[in-house]
């Protein structure tokens, strides 16, 4: 069973790369504009995503494809990028433990129940490597928020992509 914490206190070829990063920057700016997040949130999101690209050495084109809805490339570096992003936001430990209190602190009371239910649905039920937990969570959360079932609900509070 994958651990989910209620509180964070419970947890004692270079040219191609640069060109891919530039493409990622352009797409990230477009995506964040479309999702109507604040300029400050947009800048922080962009900064963290780019830090994770550098830290994990993921191919930026893989990230772009992921953001475009292509989830078939389950390469370990892309999964590690997902874990890095969740770490940067404080939503997940490096060991793959989800910090529910941190995530829910961003959600208004009116939406807490539905967001928490979606988070619980998206966390893997079996123990896995941390980067696989992060991958499955982000994939599920992203796909769920795009589904018709949730089209009228607001789940952008944990917007990471």
Describe the structure.
- A two-stranded parallel ribbon has the order 1-2.
- It has one domain: Recoverin, domain 1 (Orthogonal Bundle), CATH 1.10.238.
- The protein has helices spanning 14-34, 39-56, 60-67, 76-89, 100-104, 109-122, 130-146; strands at 4-5, 98-99.
- It is built from seven helices and two strands; from the N terminus they run E-H-H-H-H-E-H-H-H.
- With 161 residues, the chain is mainly α.
Task: Give keywords.
161 residues, mainly alpha, Recoverin, domain 1, two-stranded parallel ribbon, 7 helices, 2 strands, 2% strand, globular
Please summarize the sheet with the most strands.
Answer: 2 strands, parallel
CATH topology: Recoverin, domain 1
Please provide the count of β strands: 2
Q: Over all CA atoms, what is the radius of gyration?
A: 15 Å
Percent helix, as a range, is 55-70%
CATH architectural grouping: Orthogonal Bundle
Distance between the termini: 26 Å
Strand order of the largest sheet: 1-2
Instruction: Round the mean pLDDT to the nearest integer and report it.
Output: 76
CATH evolutionary superfamily: Pheromone/general odorant binding protein domain
Order of helix and strand elements from N to C terminus: EHHHHEHHH
Share of β-strand residues: under 5%
